[in-house]
Every structure is written in structure tokens, then in C-alpha cells.
Amino acid sequence: MFSEQLALCKTCTRIGVSKRRKANRPYLIPSPKDRFLFYETAYALQTRDFVSRDLFLSLKFQNEKLLGRFFILGWKRLLNLWKADPPDCFVLVPSRAKVGPKPYHAAWAFHDRLKNGQNMREDTSLRKISKDKQSEKRFEDRFFHAKKAFGFTKSDRIIEGLHVLLVDDIFTTGASLNEIARLYKLRGARKVTCVVCLLSGVIESNGCSSQG
Description:
Number of helices: 7
Oligomer: single chain
């Protein structure tokens, strides 16, 4: 059934799903040492390989929505990691300034599990205010762009003292997530945790991040 929903052959699905279930997921993303971090921890549900790379491109750019389920395999293990200090609310990181023709966010499946399955409150006050796409920026430019890319539209939401969970589709440099975490810390968030569907970037042995 899972193979049919993903439109993949049964052999590839069986091998891919089996490997990911046995793997150490979710993957704790090493903390980059080339910047000050405003989030406490970051996790990736999948890491990039030749299969996940192509599937993610189909999910994000070819409207293959059902593939979103593939990229959240193992998400329930996060609940055990958060048992001592579960998030109070979650934020789906916006990818565009205005709602366009794309009908869903690449992390829609995880969003649904948190909101409908775990009854976690969603904070929708974050907006992307820059029309530029982060994915089109060079490595260094991503950090400068992130500084002016996001803002809040509703300042009356109570964030002070809360554990905020940031949900995004992909971690390349982590620039956007770190900037959003900074904004939430300025509003009084006690703790910020990040979860992404796919880790695409690389944290080098010297602690610096790269696009891989």
C-alpha cells in the first residue's frame, strides 16, 4: 500500500523504508560552530542520498504531495525525545511571501501529525516578507538574506516562556531556521527546537556548514 501511495516500485520502497526504519532516525544535526545559535537542537527525519534527493525534488517542485509521508518516517521517535520538555506550539516556516499556486507546504505531512494527531497549537504569526527565494542564493548570501526575510504580523500572540518548535522542509545552511529562532527568542521564547524533513547540507569536521 505504501508503495502504491508513493508511486514507487515495491522493491525500492521496501529497501528504502527498511533502511530508514533501521537507521538512527531522527538524526540530530550537529551544531554549526561558525555562528551563534539561537535554537537549542535541530533534527532531520531524513538525510540526503540519490533516492531522497530525487524524491524531494518531486515533492517540492512537481506537486507529488503523497511523497511527504515518505519524508516523515520515524517522526514518532521525536515524542520520546521531547517527553521531558514537549513543545508548547509549532511553526511551519513559510517559504514564500504570498500564497502562490502551490497548494501545500513540503512539510505538510508533519504539520498534520502535529496539529491533528498531537493537538499541538500552531503559531501562524510568522510571515516571509522577502520575495526572494533562499534556495536561489549563494552560500554566503543566504545568511544576509535570512536577516531580512521574516517578520511577525500578529504581535499579540503570547510566546514568552514557551518551547517553540520550528518545522521546515529542508536544512541546507540552517540560516533561515537560526534567524527565525532569534526572532522568537526576542519575543521571549524559552526554548526553540527545529525539525526538518531532509538534511541537505553538511556540517564539516571543523564545525562549519556547507551546502554539500
